[in-house]
Design brief:
The protein has about 230 residues and is α/β, with parallel strands linked by helices. It has two domains: about 30 residues; about 170 residues, RlpA-like domain (Barwin-like endoglucanases), CATH 2.40.40. Helix content is about 15%, strand content about 20%. It has four helices and seven strands, in the order ααββββββαβα. Strands 1-7-4-5-3-6-2 form a seven-stranded mixed β-sheet, covered by helices on one side. A hairpin with a 5-residue loop joins β4 and β5. The relative contact order is 0.23. About 30% of the residues have low confidence. InterPro entries: Expansin_CellWall, RlpA-like_sf. It comes from Lentinula raphanica. Keywords: Signal. This is RlpA-like protein double-psi beta-barrel domain-containing protein.
């Protein structure tokens, strides 16, 4: 028998022996199937994290109380009485204007009050110095305490809020709440966002919050989140 033929026979034997080992091929399949699938998030309606999701603070979750006060004062970087409507020129949105947020952990557990707001409080969202856009009750945006909340999310950050694992929404920070107490950890939601978590008639509920990634340009819905550009 020639040497090349002998080597070929040995090679075939080794390959056959490897795949005949118990679990050899199936272990490779199992590793592949355990890789997490890349999910596509829907920022336009409530979503579920699954029945058995655990809100672990190491994943960026923090528990807080949410209350709803119909007609509550809220949102703006300055008192609304001092604000005037401006009709600035719209700027073309650029991908580079979007803050690309990964899911980040908050530094510690915090207690935060959440309300919903409507009417004139929706006017002139203060995260833009000059914008024609105004959110509506159907938008998915929020307003945060004006002063004293040192670790609060920034303008244009996206937040994921969950009332249990089955009811979660994404909202964008677009305004500040001048009427909220200095130093309070207070978040106002639009009616559409709040009603995805609970009835507007709810008094108090426990929810969870974390920073979230922002939608990509192809998914962007100005009616829900405002202009794509940060106005810089």
């Amino acid at each position: 028998m020639s040497r090349p033929v002998a080597l070929l026979i040995v090679s075939i034997f080794l390959v056959s022996f490897t795949f005949s080992l118990p679990g050899a091929s199936s272990s490779i399949i199992r590793r592949t199937s355990n890789l997490p699938a890349k999910s596509s998030r829907d920022y336009r309606k409530a979503h579920s994290l699954g029945d058995y999701h655990n809100f672990d603070p190491r994943d960026g979750w923090t528990t807080f109380n949410a209350t709803t006060f119909p007609g509550s004062n809220s949102s703006t970087l300055e008192p609304r009485a001092n604000k005037t409507q401006t009709n600035g020129e719209k700027k073309k949105a650029k991908v580079s204007d979007i803050t690309d947020l990964a899911l980040k952990s908050l530094s510690k557990f915090i207690g935060v009050t959440i309300t919903w707001y409507t009417g004139h409080d929706l006017l002139n969202p203060s995260c833009w110095a000059n914008s024609e856009w105004t959110p509506t009750d159907e938008s998915f945006v929020s307003a945060l305490t004006l002063d004293g909340w040192e670790t609060k999310p920034k303008c244009f950050d996206f937040l994921e809020l969950c009332n249990g694992p089955q009811k979660c929404v994404f909202v964008r920070v677009v305004d500040s709440c001048a009427g909220c107490a200095v130093g309070s950890k207070h978040v106002d939601l639009t009616k559409a966002a709040f009603s995805q978590l609970a009835s507007l008639d709810e008094g108090t509920l426990s929810v969870n919050m974390r920073l979230a990634t922002s939608p990509n340009e192809a998914e962007w819905q100005p009616a829900l989140w405002g202009p794509l550009t940060h106005g810089k």
